[in-house]
Automatic annotation (TrEMBL):
<feature type="domain" description="Nuclease associated modular">
    <location>
        <begin position="91"/>
        <end position="107"/>
    </location>
</feature>
<protein>
    <recommendedName>
        <fullName>Nuclease associated modular domain-containing protein</fullName>
    </recommendedName>
</protein>
<feature type="compositionally biased region" description="Polar residues">
    <location>
        <begin position="80"/>
        <end position="91"/>
    </location>
</feature>
<dbReference type="Pfam" id="PF07460">
    <property type="entry name" value="NUMOD3"/>
</dbReference>
<feature type="domain" description="Nuclease associated modular">
    <location>
        <begin position="74"/>
        <end position="90"/>
    </location>
</feature>
<dbReference type="GO" id="GO:0003677">
    <property type="term" value="F:DNA binding"/>
</dbReference>
<dbReference type="InterPro" id="IPR003611">
    <property type="entry name" value="NUMOD3"/>
</dbReference>
<feature type="region of interest" description="Disordered">
    <location>
        <begin position="1"/>
        <end position="34"/>
    </location>
</feature>
<feature type="domain" description="Nuclease associated modular">
    <location>
        <begin position="57"/>
        <end position="73"/>
    </location>
</feature>
<feature type="domain" description="Nuclease associated modular">
    <location>
        <begin position="26"/>
        <end position="42"/>
    </location>
</feature>
<feature type="domain" description="Nuclease associated modular">
    <location>
        <begin position="9"/>
        <end position="25"/>
    </location>
</feature>
<feature type="region of interest" description="Disordered">
    <location>
        <begin position="69"/>
        <end position="110"/>
    </location>
</feature>
Amino acid sequence: MTLGNKSRLGRKTSSETKKKMSIAHTGRKHSEETKKKLSEIFKILYKEGKLKTLKERGYIHSLETRRKISEAGTGRKHSTTTLLKMSNSQTGKKHTEESKKKMSLSRFRL
């Protein structure tokens, strides 16, 4: 009788084996079908509260990491299709009176 997928239960993977596995999987890409399946699974898990974002888990980037992320995005230009999508997503949305007041005050840095 075999143990099935529990044959490695409790065993540690050596760093050499991890490196071999990393090299073996480098460049591999999921098929479109697999991507769709994963997307559906993650949507369900998120709705059920079983999957949380980094922010929800309390993860905070260090100041240095935030600076690096900022520098990486600085000067980046969105494609025209992306700009159009962003524009369409905001079309028809109205700001509340409270948010209008906040925006007004922020202009004067009050």
